[in-house]
Design brief:
alpha/beta
Length: about 350
C-alpha cells in the first residue's frame, strides 16, 4: 500500500507546478541569530558530547548534540519560544493552538505558559502518556484526534471555532529560525565539524540547522534521517511537491509527521545534501546503544541520526568530524521497558 494518496501523472505535474510557483518566505542566518538572542534567557545551550565508542563504531569523530537535555526534553522549545515571543498583542489575546505527537506540544505549552497565553495542543489518541501529562503540566489544554493522519483536520476545525492562532509545528519561519539556533551551537562547539546528521520529522530542525550551517560554512554537509514508515520529507522530495501521508507506522512517534510543507521542503531541496531512511530496528538499536555506552536516555526519534550512521546510511570518510542530533528524550517508561 502506498503511504500517500496516489494521483494521476497530470495531477502530479500540476501539483509540482503549483509548488514551484509559490513565493515562500526565506529564513536567513540573521533570523537565526536574532532568534538565538531572543530565546537565550529561557533555554539551555546544550552540550555536544564526544563518544569514543560510537566514533569507533561509525568510523567518525562523532559528537552528540544532546537536545534531550533541553528545556521540555527536546529541541522544540527553541522554535516555540521564538514564535511565542513574537506574537502580536492580538494573537496573544486569542491564544494559540497546534498539533503534535508531543514534543512540539510541550515546547509550545512551556512557551505560552511563560507569557500567560492560552494554549491548546491536539495530539493523536496514541500519544505517549508522559507527553500528554507534560503538556497539561505546562498549563496547556490537551485534545485528541483518532489518529496522526487525522490530526490536522481535527485541530483546524477547533482553531476556526475558537479563533485561536495556529503555530505550525515545523513550517513557520519563526519555528525554523528557533530550531536553527541548535545549528549555531553545533558550529560554535565543534568548529571543525564536516557533517551534521539530523533527526527529521516535518523538517523544521533539519531546515534550521541547514540554514545556519551552510551560511557559516557552505562546505558542511547536512543529512536528514527519517523512519521508513514515516517518510513524508523523503517521499515529497521524490515526488517534487509536498505530500500528505495516509499511512504512518514507526516506533519514532516524534518523527511521524502527517505531511510535508512547502516552506521546509524548499529549504531542504536547496540546502540539505540528502534525506535517508532507516528501519525501526536501526532506531531501536541506536537507542539501546546510546543508553548503554553514553548513559544518555533518548526517545526513539532522538536516536534516528545515530542509527543512520551505525547503519552506514550516511556517506562519511574515516575520521570525519561528524555531529548527530539527539533531538529529544521524552520517552514513557513503559515504552522504554518494551524497547530494552
Amino acid at each position: 500500500m502506498t503511504p500517500h494518496t496516489p494521483i494521476t501523472d497530470a495531477a502530479a505535474e500540476a501539483a509540482r507546478a503549483s509548488y514551484r510557483s509559490l513565493n515562500l518566505p526565506m529564513v536567513t542566518i540573521e533570523d537565526i541569530r536574532a532568534a538565538a538572542e531572543r530565546i537565550a534567557p529561557y533555554i539551555h545551550h546544550t552540550p555536544t558530547l564526544p563518544s569514543a565508542t560510537l566514533s569507533r563504531m561509525t568510523g567518525t569523530r562523532l559528537g552528540l548534540k544532546a537536545e534531550n537535555l533541553q528545556r521540555t526534553g527536546s529541541f522544540k522549545a527553541r522554535g516555540a519560544l521564538n514564535a511565542v515571543l513574537q506574537l502580536t498583542p492580538e494573537q496573544r489575546a486569542r491564544g494559540v493552538v497546534t498539533m503534535s505527537a508531543g514534543n512540539h506540544g510541550q515546547g509550545l505549552a512551556f512557551a505560552a505558559g511563560m507569557v500567560g497565553v492560552r494554549c491548546v495542543v491536539f495530539m493523536p489518541q496514541t500519544a505517549v502518556p508522559t507527553k500528554v501529562a507534560a503538556v497539561r503540566d505546562y498549563g496547556a489544554e490537551a485534545r485528541f484526534s483518532p489518529s496522526m493522519e487525522s490530526l490536522f483536520s481535527c485541530m483546524d476545525a477547533f482553531r476556526e471555532q475558537e479563533g485561536l492562532h495556529y503555530v505550525h509545528p515545523f513550517a513557520d519561519p519563526a519555528i525554523i529560525a528557533g530550531q536553527g539556533t541548535a545549528g549555531l551551537e553545533i558550529l560554535a562547539d565543534t568548529p571543525d565539524v564536516e557533517t551534521v546528521v539530523v533527526c527529521t520529522g516535518g523538517g523544521g530542525l533539519l531546515s534550521g540547522v541547514a540554514v545556519a550551517a551552510k551560511a557559516i560554512r557552505p562546505s558542511i554537509r547536512v543529512f536528514g534521517v527519517e523512519p521508513e514508515g514515516a517518510a513524508a520529507v523523503r517521499l515529497s522530495l521524490d515526488a517534487g511537491y509536498p505530500l500528505t501521508m495516509t499511512s504512518i507506522s514507526t516506533v519514532a512517534d516524534g518523527l511521524a509527521a502527517p505531511f510535508a510543507a512547502p516552506l521546509t521542503q524548499r529549504v531542504i531541496e536547496q540546502l540539505v545534501d540528502d534525506v535517508v531512511l532507516i528501519p525501526d530496528d536501526a532506531i531501536i538499536s541506536a537507542l539501546r546503544l546510546l543508553l548503554e555506552r553514553t548513559k544518555l536516555l533518548v526517545e526513539p526519534a532522538g536516536a534516528a541520526a545515530v542509527g543512520a550512521l551505525l547503519a552506514e546510511r550516511i556517506p562519511v570518510t574515516p575520521g570525519e568530524a561528524t555531529v548527530a542530533t539527539l533531538s529529544g528524550g521524552n520517552i514513557d517508561f513503559g515504552k522504554l521497558k518494551q524497547l530494552l
